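Re: [ENG-882] Designed sequences occasionally contain unexpected residues at chain ends

Forwarding the minimal case from QA. Structure tokens:
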């Protein structure tokens, strides 16, 4: 099944995966702690504004994960002291769903050592929930947050597990483990 991009978050752990039929030539790079999705060197040129973006960024003692340019304003709001729920709602509402051919929803999560929140803005809804256990939301099919079996315990395990999940068109994945000692991130580019 093709569910597009997705986020899985739970207290202390979060993962994001790029799944794409249209733009598969992408990878995630670490830019001083911010994980950024962008085209591979062999990717055809595109002016599509939704192909490159920060998908994981540290903020407020945790991490923000998501499928687009909304990751940065969520992180900025958290760093300004907004409660996680408010930061997610404010940025998702302001940027709304993507204005592409599919009205692609924006998805996001925020993870700290002991808590997590997950959200989506679609053409017909804005949903933001606290995630007490691993919870998934995706751009297609799985477009309502739901509990999800995710067994990873480290950032590396989470990036690998997200990449390997049995959803079609895996491109790359990023993950973070958040503890009281800090943030550990990992990338899986399918190399």
């Amino acid at each position: 099944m093709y569910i597009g991009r997705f986020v899985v978050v739970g207290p202390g752990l979060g993962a994001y995966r790029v799944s794409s039929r249209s733009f598969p030539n992408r990878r995630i790079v670490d830019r001083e702690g911010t994980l950024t999705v962008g085209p591979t060197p062999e990717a055809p040129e595109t002016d599509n504004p939704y192909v490159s973006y920060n998908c994981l960024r540290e903020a407020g003692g945790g991490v923000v994960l998501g499928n687009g340019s909304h990751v940065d304003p969520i992180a900025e709001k958290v760093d300004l002291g907004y409660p996680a729920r408010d930061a997610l709602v404010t940025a998702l509402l302001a940027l709304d769903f993507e204005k592409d051919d599919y009205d692609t929803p924006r998805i996001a999560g925020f993870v700290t050592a002991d808590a997590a929140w997950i959200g989506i803005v679609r053409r017909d809804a804005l949903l933001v929930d606290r995630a007490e256990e691993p919870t998934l939301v995706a751009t297609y099919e799985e477009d309502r947050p739901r509990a999800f079996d995710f067994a990873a315990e480290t950032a590396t395990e989470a990036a690998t597990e997200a990449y390997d999940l049995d959803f079609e068109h895996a491109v790359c994945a990023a993950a973070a483990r958040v503890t009281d000692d800090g943030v550990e991130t990992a990338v899986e580019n399918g190399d």
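QA comment: On inspection the terminal residues look reasonable. The chain has one domain: 6-188. Proposing we downgrade this to a documentation issue.
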